[in-house]
Amino acid sequence: GRTYAVTAVSMGNPHAVVFMQGIDELDLPALGPLFEHHPLFPRRTNTEFVEVLSSTSIRMRVWERGAGETLACGTGACAAAVACALNGYTGRSVDVELKGGVLHVDWDEASGHVYMSGAAVTVFDGVYYL
């Protein structure tokens, strides 16, 4: 019953970027599947909920198709950064704050390539018995 504006971006996989305030209060398990399975996305989509903090910094929560909410998403961070620049919210270089940490994304104007950097960290470990 609510209308959302999205910026659709492909990073080799589909992304729908939604700009809003208050992303911490979102009920992502309820809202995420509505985007993922919307008829506009017949092969489903990843959805990034983005809060712009400044011209060089954003916060993001991500709903990944087939997986649900995740702590981070590299292609999602890149899609969000490109969507921010396309909409004039940020420049082409931005820090993306996710639950799993901060990624830095640069969208090179000359080549059109998108570069991401950030730490690779262990989020859990375990033992799998066969």
Describe this structure in words.
The chain is an alpha+beta fold and 130 residues long. The protein has a single domain, classed as Roll (Diaminopimelate Epimerase, Chain A, domain 1), CATH 3.10.310. The chain has two helices and eight strands; from the N terminus they run E-E-H-E-E-E-H-E-E-E. Strands 1, 2, 3, 4, 5, 6, 7 and 8 form an eight-stranded mixed β-sheet that branches. A hairpin with a 2-residue loop joins strand 3 and strand 4 (57-64). It is globular, with a radius of gyration of 15 Å. The chain starts with 6 loop residues before the first strand and ends in a 12-residue tail after the last strand.
Query: What is the CATH homologous superfamily assignment?
Result: Diaminopimelate Epimerase, Chain A, domain 1
- What separation lies between the terminal Cα atoms? 47 Å
What is the CATH third-level topology name? Diaminopimelate Epimerase, Chain A, domain 1
Q: Biggest sheet: strands, sense, closure?
A: 8 strands, mixed
Assembly status = single chain
Number of domains: 1
CATH architecture: Roll
**Helical percentage:** 10-25%
> Total helix count?
2
Structural class based on helices, strands and sheet pairing: alpha+beta
Number of strands: 8
Any idea what the shape is? globular
Radius of gyration: 15 Å
- Strand percent estimate: 35-45%
The residue-averaged pLDDT reads 96
CATH class: Alpha Beta
> Which parts are unreliable, with pLDDT below 50 for 5 consecutive residues or more?
none
- Order of H and E elements: EEHEEEHEEE
Brief account:
The chain is an alpha+beta fold. The chain is built from two helices and eight strands, in the order ββαβββαβββ.
